[in-house]
Amino acid sequence: MAAPTPLPAPVAGADLVLAGEPVDLRARVLVAGVVRSPRFGREGEVLATAAAVRAAGADLVDVSLPPRLAAPVARAGYGPVALRAGSAPDVEAARRAGADVVFVAPGLFAGELAERPGVAIAVLVDDLAALAGARAVADHHGLPLAIDAAAWTGPEAVGREAAAVALGCRLIRTADVRRSRRVAEVMGAILAARDQA
């Protein structure tokens, strides 16, 4: 029987600093719980959902909404805040809104996002097939890799998330915090055991 393929180690220098503390991503997987668009567009709805996401076990509260709705969550202190950005100006807007982590697609690094914008960046993909290319970008820039599992449902979502972590992702962006929290804990334990071996 062939030996199992070892899990890839995270890239060097890809640790995050959250709330002033460094997070060692070699043996830790973070969960970013997504706050959905509010039904009535009210700040109170967003704050209540952010509190629920955090209470469910999210390490980060993902408020990928307009800055007028994201900034109050950052000010309210529900924990580290993450936002998804589609352009360099979006990254700057996320920083101004108080984001601790900004998720960006690998293509944004093709010249558009040349400098570190004063906020932690993670390279985000939403498809397992795209992980190899995204990992190359993350390795080149010394950034952590994240998977967007927010649209995944059912039992196969657990397998996909575990596969993403095995392939180097250390952040999971999710709409099902409890499911992803379980995956993060199990895979984190496997990563820790690998490091001790």
Task: Summarize it.
The protein has 197 residues and is α/β, with parallel strands linked by helices. It has helices at 43-55, 67-76, 88-97, 131-141, 155-166, 177-196; strands at residues 16-18, 21-23, 30-34, 60-62, 81-85, 101-104, 120-125, 145-148, 171-174. The chain is built from six helices and nine strands; from the N terminus they run E-E-E-H-E-H-E-H-E-E-H-E-H-E-H.
Folded structure, characterized:
Helices cover about 40% and strands about 20% of the residues. With about 200 residues, the chain is α/β, with parallel strands linked by helices. The protein has a single domain (about 30-195), classed as Dihydropteroate synthase-like (TIM Barrel, Alpha-Beta Barrel). Strands 3-4-5-6-7-8-9 form a seven-stranded parallel beta barrel, surrounded by six helices. A two-stranded antiparallel ribbon has the order 1-2. Strand 3 (about 30-35), helix 1 (about 45-55) and strand 4 (about 60) form a beta-alpha-beta unit. Helix 1 (about 45-55) crosses helix 2 (about 65-75) and helix 2 (about 65-75) runs parallel beside helix 3 (about 90-95).
Supply database-style keywords.
197 residues, alpha/beta, seven-stranded parallel beta barrel, two-stranded antiparallel ribbon, disordered N terminus
